[in-house]
Fold these 2 entries.
Entry 1:
Amino acid sequence: MKIILIGAGNLATQLAVALHKKGVTPACVFSRTEESARQLSERLNGVPYTTVIDHLPADGDLYVFAVKDSALPELLPRIPANWGLWVHTAGSVDKEVFRPFTNRYGVLYPMQTFSKEREVDFNEIPVFIEANNEADALLLCDMAGKVSGKVYRADSEQRKYLHLAAVFACNFTNHLYALCDRILAEHGLPFESMLPLIRETAAKVAQMPPTEAQTGPAVRYDKNIIEKQKALLSEPLMRDIYTLMSRSIHETHNPKND
Amino acid sequence: MKIILIGAGNLATQLAVALHKKGVTPACVFSRTEESARQLSERLNGVPYTTVIDHLPADGDLYVFAVKDSALPELLPRIPANWGLWVHTAGSVDKEVFRPFTNRYGVLYPMQTFSKEREVDFNEIPVFIEANNEADALLLCDMAGKVSGKVYRADSEQRKYLHLAAVFACNFTNHLYALCDRILAEHGLPFESMLPLIRETAAKVAQMPPTEAQTGPAVRYDKNIIEKQKALLSEPLMRDIYTLMSRSIHETHNPKND
């Protein structure tokens, strides 16, 4: 299978490296940035790369667009006409974005947070697949199955909610860690002292549903502690977050009667 | 050292079991609930227990109050007079709560979330110590060092902020997992598909500061995605959380000029 990879960012790199390890090295890499394209090419035993989108080979079997959502509308019309299957890797972009340009298209959405600094074990990453015809969906499942042990199918509607759920579980969670870090730093306390708690909080929900794992002043609705803690927060935005999260925890555990 | 343990809840149990494993078994256990007292006693090779606070031995070296914050004011006046060191295990209770009753007192605050269902490795748990005199602070450090590899000192003021930081890093974070679970369940998607992302998000901040680890639409301030995602949330409280967290992420990464 001849794979053409469009993009050389964190996700593109980790996907390409994972495929390469399984002997399915992309045949060509595109990035607008020469430096990124060259770096990724080097990690893939020097496969050809280009920074000119119109120069992409037209005989690919699979075109993987692993770029920022906003780059798609500009790139798609410039891809040389071809018979390959086109997929993107985005949570919140409908597969129909491809319809004006090709009649074989789909999505390969890996559920993970990628950074340059951390190599992740792709085999542990859930990958969500969809395509506009069943043969291509099976082809994608097969290809994704080479790098991940957890391949699911999800349509574009479900994928929007997957992405939304990930924003809560990853982006917002990480921001809570950042707020925690800020509170500690202001009082001369080390963030590292919080790591076992962070690890255990994450590990617990692999064993029990999060609503069962809930602890703390808000679930007990300990008004005394809640008010004292709010008074410690000098930043209005952090105080609002404290109030809203406490209310949401309380309402989850004490549903209103209709 | 003769330790008297007041409380038989999750924290009391895990602390007692950890001490027991290190050969420092509490000499007596108190709980208002016969069943809890008996169960904990059994896990400690059948040490004596009581449900009558006035019956506690008066010759203890260390009295550990591992009870709900709200139970302290009622219990303290009923402890038989003694020369031991009194400590509680609470995040948001000042050590001066003991002053009317004894002149040796302090705090032993383990930074972890405890549940009946999960045994935690106490050695990994940071423990924060303070006492009203240096000799007792050293005694507590020594004792805490038997069960934990991470003993820190923190005064009552710092401890309030530790507790507040833990509410963000644990209680609020767990609630985000619960909201994530709710979104997925409503769309027929399995929560387990989110576990690798949850694990990686937690693991990342052991390697880089949380502000550097931040990803997602809010840090890019991708208004298009933010508005689309808000529209997916039908519950007003969840939508408010989404808005507030996104704003807070954005302001953290784009500080206003004064």
Entry 2:
Amino acid sequence: MTRFVDVHDMVRWIGRFGHEAIMSGMVEYLESDFKRWQSFEKSPRVASHTPFGVIELMPTSDADTYAFKYVNGHPSNPARGFQTVTAFGVLADVQNGYPVFLAEMTVLTALRTAATSAMVAKQLARPESTTMALIGTGSQSEFQSIAIRSATGINKLRIWDTDPDAMAKCERNLEPLNFEIYKASSAADAAAGADIVTTCTADKTNAQVLHKDAIRPGMHLNAIGGDCPGKTELDPDILDEATVFVEYTPQTRIEGEIQNKPADFAVTEFWQVLTGKAPGRTSETQVTIFDSVGFAIEDFSALRYLRDSVDGTEFFEEIDLVAHPDDPKDLFGFVGAYSPVGG
Amino acid sequence: MTRFVDVHDMVRWIGRFGHEAIMSGMVEYLESDFKRWQSFEKSPRVASHTPFGVIELMPTSDADTYAFKYVNGHPSNPARGFQTVTAFGVLADVQNGYPVFLAEMTVLTALRTAATSAMVAKQLARPESTTMALIGTGSQSEFQSIAIRSATGINKLRIWDTDPDAMAKCERNLEPLNFEIYKASSAADAAAGADIVTTCTADKTNAQVLHKDAIRPGMHLNAIGGDCPGKTELDPDILDEATVFVEYTPQTRIEGEIQNKPADFAVTEFWQVLTGKAPGRTSETQVTIFDSVGFAIEDFSALRYLRDSVDGTEFFEEIDLVAHPDDPKDLFGFVGAYSPVGG
């Protein structure tokens, strides 16, 4: 049988363990998987683009476990009452190819994207950082805030969104969690005085939600909303005076902020920082950018964490996804045993 | 909610409607989709190869519906009590990216592979064909026999497998269905006198289960077991004196029998035959080969047929795969509404 964590299980799991504990646990799994980056089979995700949006499959594998995520991105969905991003994912056993774990990943992707930002901010932000900014207060915003606070202790939050309702929603959700929140009047206002600036907007355009003059020495930028060809968030000039860190270079060249730069624009893969193969932040005035597009290994880590965490709990059910005939060569007999064959 | 057809639903569905009716219905869906071949987004499947086997994702899409299948192929599985191939698949709505239908496809793949063979045999085999041969009597064999009979009326069956137990199993399953079965002493013996020869073996090697001297003028070969790089079934010389039909040329050059031939080896895509853009069989003595590797559009057709066929029946359940917050931008609030957020 295949274990299945549905939406209801997922929210009960979060309720039981709490966002911050889950983010911390997930960061540990992410770090452990990023440190063994070279043991994974990696490929750019497989994307199906339409005028409405994109549907992607994101596979990766180590020697024991195969994982993939199905995820869509449809920027016009919220206006029609749907979410921009929904997802689900699967873990399979490499040795026999059987799918062993299925989970909703709409919520889990929000957690893993935030946990990834937190893992990176912990390494690249200035240790004395006290304030973070959020440009874009959609579905990701609260998760990002909690994850970064969990990793860095930062409690001061400056938020901005073109949609006042989205800002009010973010404030309403985060205020009870003891964030000190400032509602900014523009993206530049939000960024002013922030040590860590997260851009998480959803427009499917080459937007510039943050201009070069909003950048201050020593900032760490966490650019997560630019994640498709033709979908970026930053004034490209910002990249020229910063050090850019990515997940998986071939994918980020297609989908990240650096799609607006020449193919030889210098980047550092973050796993190299974690393993000491490349420097992270090297000065107090350096601007660091995590040009994040989301990579399959992060989903692998998140699914692995979820699988381990729900083991022994009631937060999953077993589903009958794989036929298991007594004689593996007798699939036909297996079908017939349940149902007399007729013409 | 997402509709889910599990293994139990699948076997009850087959029991209700019967293999032959289902194969016929599926052939209609396949033909309708092959005829509009050019309206699909097509790409070679994404394969993860290990020493144990392969795990593949097979996506395709038309303007309305996206489909993908997860499928493994592990030749050493049966010796360990597992099936060589297991699969599941998903249909999604292109307009909003939401997954709307999930189904087991271990059984459904067997049905769709057989229905595809039947669709092709109906076009390419000589109309006066009376006898078919099966080289390899594993999981696919009974489905192939029933599908081809359903499409051509052929009832005489010559079978061969290196595993006597697999032959006995095939005979045991098919005899009650009124096939006239001859158990051959070799692959060549099985092919002798057959008008349609189906090879469906599972070795992960460049095997030659059928040699050139077993081929007779006018034969139609249905080569379905060669479906991975380094996994072929036919003596390559057979191809030189035959007309070769494929599903999707770029994928078949990598995975089909023609991987043993130069990259410019002439082939015809089968959809062209169906639409009249290319000739099928042009003489009574011509040898035709369907170098089948399985293509995503076939899974699209099979899933679409299943979805339509189970609609209004009890052969599916609804699962909670996609979170649906009242405010699509408030995923965090959705989680919190079910579970007080804690540290």
